[in-house]
Amino acid sequence: MSMAGNLRKVRSLGRVGGLRKVARLARRRPRVDLSHPARSPLGSSVVNCVAYETGVRIPVEGDLADAVRQVRKSGDGFVWLGLHEPTNAEFAGIAELFDLHPLAVEDAIEAHQRPKLERYGDTLFAVFKSVCYVEHEELTATSEVVDTGEIMVFLGQDFAVTVRHGRHGSLGPVREELESHPQHLAKGPSAVLHAIADHVVDEYLTVIDSVQADMDQVETDVFAEHGARVDPGRIYQLKRELLELKRAVVPLGRPLLELADRPIRVVDPEIQAYFRDVADHQLRAAEQIAAFDELLNSILQAHLAQVTVAQNEDMRKITAWAAIVAVPTMVCGVYGMNFDYMPELGWRYGYPLVIGVISVACLTLYRGFRRNGWL
């Protein structure tokens, strides 16, 4: 496609999400040497840009456009460009160079997307939710347990563009692992997509194992001797964090099944078998989250039942002591009345007798309540 045709497509971004400045920015795209990894060919958001041929990294001289021309000329390579939270201006030239669809570009810049898989002509656009376990000494009603981010992947015949949002989810280890297996990387950009999907789903399982430790601690505290005193806010907080994890894991099932079963032009058929394994791991993670959710519901119900039982026990104790106190109150109330003629008022042993009757009655009630478990 000609440069003018690409430019017209970039200008069309102005009709979606207020990206009207993209075409003007694309015309003055800067050229920066890619040999400086700390610098960006189009802005500070570029983390890395690497070209591969037959699964092996090749040196690139010039800017991003030169790298693309180099791999397209060879016909047996691709470019992997990694970005972190790019702006409209930083992404403008990239969208033009790879002929990316405006809607996908808007999603990649704005983020806050649910996991999905979309096809725009010969380009594949995938969204993954990355997760990270937040370490904490003790789970409280305000503890952050799960932190989420996003990884977007644009996939074409000769390019893979990854856009990352969030404080975690670095793809550096994924790149290193892929480069250590050139025979797998030689299958093209779809190998990058599989590696990212596998990395994301493995992180799901790791986070789930850590969340399980928090659940075990909450369960132990609830069923301890003084479980009724456990703050229910801890249970609700853990349930909210589990819901955040569920939003990342469950919607990914359908895109992975599409990658595993449906023929897609930019996905190598041999890679599809690997996606089946990733889909199986995702299903396992989704089932564990569903089981955790049910278990948390049971723990919460058990805690509420314990609170109810504790309240009933407190009410029985209060009632028992009130009944014991009622005996001297009644006797003293009767003899506190100012009548001239009352039994035993003039008797020498009247006072000791009343005290003795009160003591015996209170002791009898106390022993009866103790025997019945009220005290």
By DSSP, the count of extended strands is: 7
Order of helices and strands: HHEEHEHHEEEEHHHHHHH
Strand order of the largest sheet: 2-1-3-7-6-5-4
Net shape: rod-shaped
Helical percent range? 55-70%
- The average pLDDT value, as a whole number, equals 82
- Please tell me how large the radius of gyration is: 35 Å
Structural class: alpha+beta
Uncertain regions spanning at least 5 consecutive residues: 1-43
Strand residue percentage: 5-15%
- Number of helices in the DSSP assignment: 12
Q: Describe the main β-sheet briefly.
A: 7 strands, mixed
How widely separated are the two ends? 88 Å
Explained architecture:
- This protein has helices spanning 3-11, 22-27, 64-74, 88-98, 102-110, 172-179, 182-185, 189-222, 232-249, 253-261, 269-335, 350-371, and strands at residues 46-53, 56-58, 77-84, 116-120, 123-133, 146-155, 159-165.
- α11 (269-335) packs antiparallel against α12.
- The protein is rod-shaped.
- A hairpin with a 3-residue loop joins β6 (146-155) and β7.
- With 375 residues, it is α+β, with helices and mostly antiparallel strands.
- Strands 2-1-3-7-6-5-4 form a 7-stranded mixed sheet, with helices on both faces.
Index terms:
55% helix, 375 residues, alpha+beta, rod-shaped, 12 helices, disordered N terminus
Write the layout of secondary structure elements.
Elements: H1 3-11, H2 22-27, E1 46-53, E2 56-58, H3 64-74, E3 77-84, H4 88-98, H5 102-110, E4 116-120, E5 123-133, E6 146-155, E7 159-165, H6 172-179, H7 182-185, H8 189-222, H9 232-249, H10 253-261, H11 269-335, H12 350-371
Parallel strand pairs: 3-7
Antiparallel strand pairs: 1-2, 1-3, 4-5, 5-6, 6-7
Helix pairs in contact: 1-4, 8-9, 8-11, 9-11, 10-11, 11-12
